[in-house]
Amino acid sequence: MHDELIHMSAARVVDLLQAGELRPSELVEASIRRIEATDGALNALPVHCFERAREQARVMEQDAQGSRKLVLGGLPIVVKDNNDVGGVGTSGGTPIFRDRMAAVSDRCIAQLERNGAIPMAKSNLSELGGANTTNRLFGATRNPWNTALTCGGSSGGSAVAVATGQSWLAHGNDLGGSLRIPPAFCGVTGLRPTPGRIARKALSEPFDSVVVDGPIARSIEDLALMFDGMVGFDAGDFLTAPSPDGPFRPAARAPRKPTGKLAFCLSPGDLTVTREIVALCEQAVKRLGALGVRTEAAQPDISGTREAISVLRGDAYATTWELILEQKGDDAFTAEVLADIRRGQTQRPQAVRDAQRWRMALYRRVTDFLQEFDFFICPATQVLPFPVEQRWPREIDGVAMTSYLDWISINYVWSLVGCPVLAIPIGTSASGLPVGLQVMGPPRSEAALLAFGAWIERELWPAAKVIDPRS
User: Fold this and answer.
1) Per-domain residue ranges for the chain?
2) pLDDT digits (tens, 9 = 90+) for 96-139
3) Residues 245/447, Cβ–Cβ less than 8 Å
4) Is 178 a catalytic residue?
5) 190, 314, 395, 428: most buried, per Cβ within 10 A?
6) Which one of 123, 178, 204, 310 is the catalytic residue?
């Protein structure tokens, strides 16, 4: 029965929980068994909270009638290790916080628990940033499609856990692509929601409008189900507001193609995308057109993206980490993060002002563009998964990458405009690796985005199946 359960969708499992045909404890044990059987080859979930999960399941079963009414009904999940789960360590993969123990779950995770989620484990991540899931505390997480390769980052452990059936759903967060790159590399789905949909943790920068939390799942309906468990107003986060357009699972259960035009660009701006990804995404767009979607090659102007991202990230990292750098010294940080901090400390104030003005203009261009088009589509990554020992690709199809930010610019640029973005698989490369699309809609258009994503999933590429690690 354990093996049968892990292959079920989250939506199906929750339906069985709510009907009283499954107990949360059965799912907890199925998840533990799968983690123990697969994670030695993957290193996706270095921090376990199995006994906490067992106790949470026991308590829920004592109030079975009440638990069955919850959105998630007692479903096990995993949580990225930069968010707190009460009574569990939160290191973020950095020696700086090696001994940090969370007293209570933070806002986002507490909301999930109130809605019936049971955290099973903490997922591995990049060390304070980056897009390859590796750090000095736990090491690297491997891609289940080929364990010699990276799963991307920074929510890599979460994507791997979902792809391999260690968990039905996983929490992640996204600054420059972390809810899109790992899902694309692992053949699952991720949603970067509009800022304010989901409450941020208390330790986050309260005025930031770039970092968001969101769900990772194997199907669009599962993604919407978890999103329903995450959204909501929280007085501690002034960006949050009620979501009167929810719940979102019904939207995912009613696949719908756009009635208006869809814009696409296979290599936005001056960004380099490897030829094989371009070809597969072009095939997907042609198939959409053949199915009656009105498509047009068009894009908002994103010239200057890489330079602006570098400046804005430097300023943000210096603001966040400068005092800890003074206390702990250079060795507390990876080379890439240290370079971000130092750049933020030394760059000209004029450069920061120019980058902020660039972001304002970009927002206006993108939101105006999305008044003309229902959605914008582009590749979910610029490269295919690369060797796990490589921190970032130094070139793409012969074009040099000058920093670890260059190869994620196709993700980072959309993070800056506050629009929801869906990552969805649409095929595999010649070497058998997943390839995904990003689909972006106007702010707070998640319901329409999920309905369209479900239509793509139905027509182009079926929901992901649980896979075993492959070498």
Assistant:
1) 2-306+346-459
2) 999 999 999 999 999 999 999 999 999 999 999 888 999 999 99
3) yes
4) yes
5) 190
6) 178
